[in-house]
Amino acid sequence: MHDCHIPTLKNQRQIPPPHCFPLPNPCPIAVSKNDLMAQALHIVNGIVVNDDRQWRADVLVVDGKVHSVGLDLVVPAGVRVIDAAGKYVIPGGIDPHTHLQLPFMGTVSRDDFDHGTRAAVAGGTTCVIDFVIPSSRSESLVDAYDRWRSWADPKVNCDYALHVAVTSWSERISSEMGILCGERGVSSFKMFMAYKDSMMVTDAELYRCFARCRELGAIGMVHAENGDLVAAGQEHVLRCGVHGPEGHELSRPEEIEAEATERAITIAHQVRAPAYIVHVMSKGAADALVRARRAGRQCFGEALAAGLAVDGSHACNADWRAAAAYVMSPPLRSDPTTKEHLMRLLAVGDLATVATDNCTFNADQKALGKDDFTKIPNGVNGIEDRMAIVWTKGVETGMLAPTDFVRVTSTAAAKIFGLYPRKGRIEQGSDADIVVWDPAAKRTISAKTHHHNIDYNICAWPNEYLTFKLLMCGGRS
Ligand code: URQ
Ligand code: ZN
Ligand code: ZN
Asked: With contact defined as beta carbons under 8 Å apart, do 41 and 61 qualify?
């Protein structure tokens, strides 16, 4: 059975300045134990697109790996042929931020590792990086990691890797971070500056975590919102009598995302560690990140598919369910120009990746907050529609070239999290995670047809069409 868990790059030392990604070191490749993927495939007549070039080439896949790329390939008789005429042949998407079957805010996110990865593959994503989050400050990080593996390994439908959240600081935590890097193939840790009284760390703890990441050659990732001001804002908005979903963004305006973004990067810089800011959801936070990059700080920013597709206007929907569906943190912003602003920063590389933060809840779960917006489980979908959203909102509008599309949906995440060039590229020896992308085909996003395990899709457009695709994952189609 193919081992779907992929260890990410260990001992990532100094990461070069933001504009260049770490040089790829060969990370240990789990060798398939049997020939489940011994299927050979020959993809012909397509345009191959990597992050640095696109060109007319055929691709020969053998045993789940790219065997050769070019024209007039030597192909054994009887190999299955896929005609990609008029289509792009691209590296499978990598979603570096998901929360599948996450226990959170008194419930568990509905997309588990089966539904979530089924939806991912259906949308052209062939690898996801999920987050291990310890159940309490006292739970061992290694135990939490092993628990996540026991959940994911039996269920996943594509390759996956794991980040680990650090929600407190102690010598034990420091030691366990070392074990996770040295023995479990973890190379990225996430700290929350929000979620006071549950996952939030102090500035001093954040400093320690970044220092430890630097020692280990790991990357520190941050949910950047000022958690103390969020708590104060929530109390104030409730006291003013606003209890509905419209209170969510009111209680956490974009300046407290921007302030925390700048603070996180400043703290990381004190120990010369790179900082990866997850879900940059506002112009203020994005511009704080850009200022830091211009000042030479090592920082990467992540956009979300939801933040590129929709805005915060839905929070005032008279239908409570519809409004609550869009509740996530940091909030989708009411400023309608945010979507394009974020896309333009992806185009120039100031934002590096597009993820989804897929953390889905059904109507009955969202209703846990029907009388108090602070109790609405935070999270939205995106894992299935991410690639189509970036193509439609980025490439079809002319802001992204196909090479940029590959960069932000696959290659950048592979390079930052140590999966490159095994993943994120179509070249000899890479995994055959290949998407045959047909820009002429169209489909409508709808909760009636999606593969998520939820009754709502925040990206659904009744009249707008997005791009469809055919897919092979690890050479399996
Ligand atoms: O904050 C996160 O990243 C997790 C808990 C998902 N929820 C969310 O609203 N982003
Ligand atoms: Zn977050
Ligand atoms: Zn998240």
From this structure: yes
pLDDT tens digits, one per residue of 383-405: 999 999 999 999 999 999 999 99
DSSP string across 190-201 = EEES-STTTTB-
Buried b / exposed e along 191-228 (16+ C-beta atoms within 10 A): bbbbbbeebbbeeebbbbbbbbbbebbbbbbbbbbbbe
Could you give the angle at the alpha carbon of 259 between the alpha carbons of 212 and 104, nearest 5°?
A: 65
DSSP state of 369: G
Say what the alpha-carbon torsion angle 99, 103, 105, 109 is, to the nearest 10 degrees.
Answer: 50
Task: State the pLDDT confidence band at 251, using cuts at 50, 70 and 90.
Answer: very high
At 8-32, the pLDDT tens digits run 754 433 233 222 233 232 322 232 3
Quick one: tokens of 47? Answer: 């345009």
Spell out the residues 6+ positions from residue 138 whose beta carbon is closer than 8 angstroms to its own. none
Ligand 1: which of 97, 100, 277, 378 to mutate, judged by most atoms within 8 Å of the beta carbon? 378
Pair of tokens at residue 363: 């109507």
Distances, alpha carbon 295 to alpha carbons 133, 146, 224, 265, 465, in Å: 32, 40, 19, 11, 40
* Residue whose CB lies within 8 A of the most ligand 1 atoms, among 99, 133, 304, 375, for a mutation test: 99
Specify the amino acid at residue 361.
F
Name the residue at shortest CA distance from atom 3 of ligand 1. Answer: 357
Residues ≥6 apart with Cβ < 8 Å to 127: 6, 92, 93, 94, 95, 158, 159, 160, 161, 419, 423, 433
∠ CA 301-305-309 to the nearest 5 degrees?
120
For residue range 341-367, what is the model confidence (pLDDT) as tens digits? 999 999 999 999 999 999 999 999 999
Residue carrying the six token digits 């932000």: 408
Nearest ligand to residue 252 Cα = 1
Q: Beta strands 103-104 and 107-108: pairing type?
A: antiparallel
Q: Is the CB of 358 under 6 A from ligand 1?
A: no
- Report how far apart, in Å, the C-alpha atoms of 162 and of each of 145, 283, 392 are: 8, 29, 29
